[in-house]
């Protein structure tokens, strides 16, 4: 069965009418945990990782002597990638169905779904 990467995109801002207090954040985290627990129970979740908050990361462009390393992306970016999940699904339709309960969507974000083309390890 194919694997799909679900990539969490969000603006970094709370949706209208929502204030991310510590109590609300605990509810959000519990909703993510409940959704992921369902995927795990069904044997569909293979990997999940959250990107560090407030960590701009690095951008690498160019090659050889023309290579440039810059900081970024920054919080001013209009859209932030918050993390990803690797799931197993029969096809895109099923991947969409499995992703449709993701908490990211409830709070104004979007989920990008991409099929993973597995490459065997070298060596």
Number of domains: 1
Tell me the strand percentage band.
Answer: 25-35%
Order of H and E elements:
EHEEEEHHE
**Which strand order do you get reading across the main beta sheet?**
2-5-1-6
CATH architecture: 2-Layer Sandwich
Give a description of the structure.
- By secondary structure, this protein is of the alpha+beta class.
- It has one domain (21-116): Alpha-Beta Plaits (2-Layer Sandwich), CATH 3.30.70.
- The chain has 3 helices and 6 strands; from the N terminus they run E-H-E-E-E-E-H-H-E.
- The strands form 2 sheets. It has a 4-stranded antiparallel β-sheet, with helices on one face.
Features of the shown structure:
Alpha-Beta Plaits, two-stranded antiparallel sheet, 3 helices
What's the SSE blueprint?
Layout: E1 3-10, H1 22-41, E2 45-50, E3 58-61, E4 68-71, E5 80-88, H2 92-99, H3 103-106, E6 110-116
Antiparallel strand pairs: 1-5, 1-6, 2-5, 3-4
Structure in a nutshell:
With 123 residues, the protein is of the alpha+beta class. The chain has 3 helices and 6 strands.
